[in-house]
Amino acid sequence: MRTSFLSLFLGMALVACSSAGPWQEFRSNDYGFSIQVPTVPTENSIAVPDSGSGKMIPIHIFTSSTPTGLAYGVTVTDLPSPTSALIPESQLTNALDGLKSTYSGSIIDRKVTTTFSNKPAVRFVLQLSPTKSSRGFLVADGSRIYQITVSGNVSENDNDDRFLNSFKFLK
């Protein structure tokens, strides 16, 4: 399962720069969320094999970037049925371990949040290099894991919090 999450975060590397403008709401009815973004996001989809079952795991990546190089992203991973039987905390731990190993990063902060929109979540900060980090949430919703992340020369500021805190599940 761990290797299946290696690509969870790869979408953040697929950043396509758009012109800067006012923040706007982005809605994905197909994946059941809305979020405030600084630019129109690009959408990419990939599939990776699950290391346990060999089934292909679809991963959907939405990325919005700024001229300063920050990447704001939402990644939606649809887990195979047998894996979805795991308790949410196990799903989230596996996903976070996958992020850590993919980027040879180190987790500098991890907080298990009891709820994020009434769903189990982990808030994290991952140090990618001496000057780059990624911070955000992993949220379990049934057989899906949502990753809401800001990456780059990240420092906590109002725009990062604006993005992270604007994520909503659609009813």
How would you explain this protein's 3D organization?
The protein is α+β, with helices and mostly antiparallel strands and 171 residues long. It has one domain: 3-Layer(aba) Sandwich (Protein Transport Mog1p, Chain A), CATH 3.40.1000. The chain has helices at residues 81-84, 88-102, 158-166, and strands at 24-28, 33-37, 42-49, 56-65, 71-78, 106-116, 119-127, 133-141, 144-152, 168-169. The strands form 2 sheets. Strands 3-4-5-9-8-7-6 form a 7-stranded antiparallel sheet, with helices on both faces. Strands 1-2-10 form a 3-stranded antiparallel sheet. Strand 7 (119-127) and strand 8 (133-141) form a beta hairpin. The two termini are 29 Å apart.
Number of domains: 1
- Beta-strand content estimate: 35-45%
Superfamily (CATH H level) name: Mog1/PsbP, alpha/beta/alpha sandwich
Low-confidence stretches: 1-20
Rg is: 15 Å
Number of strands: 10
The first-level CATH class is given as Alpha Beta
Helix content: 10-25%
CATH topology: Protein Transport Mog1p, Chain A
Strand neighbour order, sheet with most strands:
3-4-5-9-8-7-6
Helix-strand makeup class: alpha+beta
Mean pLDDT: 75
Global shape? globular
Provide the CATH architecture: 3-Layer(aba) Sandwich
